[in-house]
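Hi U.,

Before I forget, here's the chain from the pilot set. I'm dumping it here mostly so it's searchable later in email.
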Amino acid sequence: MTQIEPLTPVLGARVTGVDLAGVRSAEAGAPLRAALVEHKVLVFPDQSLTPTAHRGFAAALGELTPAHPVVPGLDADHPEIYVLDAGDGGKAPVWHTDVTFMARPPLGSVLRAVTLPPTGGDTCWTDLEAAYLFLSEPLRDLADKLTAVHDGRKDFEEYLHERLGGEGNTWEGQRIRSLEPVEHPVVRVHPESGRRSLFVNPGFTTRLLGVSEAESRALLDVFFAAVGRPEFTVRHRWREGDVVVWDNRSTAHYAVDDYGDQRRVMHRITLRGDVPVGV
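Structure:
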């Protein structure tokens, strides 16, 4: 019997009593999709997934994207799996929401631990709905009206051109040959829950439109401080067999880089999302 145990009052739940290798249809995945909208982060311990089973479970939650707009997938049989290898640049020690530098960011992510360091390597998630509600009412009213620029060039432009010769993956039907910045509302309305989130992150959000550069910097500092408040976060210490699913529309996450040169390899699959809609 599936049991869902909240991890904090605002964010995350531990789900037991379910074998993810057996969740292979949209009907079977529907209760977990509903739990994902409610809790935003779901931790499934003691799983035993192959790359193929990982893909099968993720497909029960939604339509799969390629591994990444730029970075190739695991192999020809698993082009949807993004390999996060700490020894090959697969670290992300900054608050970020996956792939917001594209016009249609993923709905969510399904992350599986493959190789873990003896100690360290935790992942933290933060609740962007709570971050929005933390702002004062006048500031929320302002945020509701703002648009932000998201830019992935700092992280992936060099990889795209120097390692791939300017030929990335096909994302939303288009071959990625450049990473032009995109615009998203600062406050995103969740398409399923109707709740509002502060949809900015230090990893990819670079500028607010319609205000001066100084005002943009100051406002982003305020927004980023709200995103990173510890009381809105949950921290997961990975164990072999762990799978974590999160809602990319209402969370950001941070991969803690505290394990030196020890090996850490994770496999991530993302679910096709929609164009962010503001207030």
